[in-house]
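Lab notes, practical 5.
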Amino acid sequence: MPSIPPPYFPPEWKARADGLLMVGGHLTSDWLLTSYGRGIFPWPIVEDGVEILAWFSPDPRAVLELDRLHVSRRLQRRIRSGQFQISFDADFAAVVAGCAEPRATDSSTWITPGLAAAYRGLHDLGHAHSVEVWQQGQLVGGVYGVALGGYFSGESMFHRCRDASKVGLVYLLERLQQRGFTLFDVQQSSPHLRSLGAIEIPRRQFLDRLGESVELPVSFADNSPPTC
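Output from the prediction step:
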């Protein structure tokens, strides 16, 4: 059986205008940790049943400042109502599976079985984390992402009832602030993310902040209860 080569990525500035930096490579933990440490993320291209592993480093980069999440009054009321219960890393695999479910407007998903397995591997190593949102004992939403030092890359979120994913995001950002994180990466902007407060910054600025944040001696995991 051939051995897997060590991670290799071209310089980030070689990415195309759409952010595509490279195709190929491997979804091992070494490749993923190397990529995230350099501000590169996997985004498989799936068309007509054909899957191509691709890696992206867009410019500009979308981030959500930890103290600038826009929480509407209606969402604040939903949080205070007590109808949702929150946990951290209680069922990472179920959150990834929920995020991988095709959306109503799209029959495919970028979270392929291989990528889902790779994220579960990062979770086993302590580098990927989830927020679960429960209602009457049922998982109704969640968020997951990858953590390196004080950097957190939000990968995906899902909901099965209104606002459940947004509630999870509120608790996630509170957790990151509590634990000393400094950079929350949402990768690429969208109307939905902008409505929550996401902004775009130049890739060079993002990479400078990334280099500082990954060196911070902080950890996502602890036993503190959510306080939102």
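Observations recorded by the TA: The mean pLDDT is 93. The longest helix spans residues 164-179.
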